[in-house]
Amino acid sequence: MSFNEEEVFQLFKETEALLEGHFLLTSGRHSNVYFQCAKVLQYPKYNELLSAIIASYFKSFEIDTVIAPAIGGIVVGQEVARQLNKKFIFAEREDKALLLRRGFSLKEGEKVLICEDVVTTGGSVFEVIDIVKSNNAIVQGVGFIVDRSNGKVDFRFPQTSAMKIDAISFPADECELCKKGIPLIKPGSKKIL
Ligand code: ZN
After folding, report:
1. Angstrom distance (rounded) from CA 10 to CA 18
2. What pLDDT, in 10s, does the model give residues 43-60?
């Protein structure tokens, strides 16, 4: 079974991973969308379905190892690796830099698929690309569940996502949603501000 983008969108709404309205973000900006990928990935069966979109895209690629940046990418990378029956490792942050720890390593020429849950600017994925290259291993592609960049991020390798989100955000004092009088909600609190 494979999901189309509309079905993926519905899944995010049903699990409240995606809420539409008028939200106060932790940055202080106001947005028409609140998004928390972990809310859908907390259900293993949904992680399986969403990760299958990535796994099916890359199933004809030569891949030895799936790698993900911690923490968000781990559940996705592990599941994609399970479906492709490949090794899975992750990079984690120590003193701000992503590193391979726990005895994880990449060999010269090892073919690698990078997975992530959410890509906004792609910073963590670009760091993992650097780790792969610095080990003389080969990036075969990048797969992620949600593209929050409105399709702008280009990793310059084959890439795929299960869903793209068009989110708009405003500085609090220039918010179009405030001007329309839509009640402002702080996510998690269910409180109208
Ligand atoms: Zn507002």
Report:
1. 9
2. 999 999 999 999 999 999
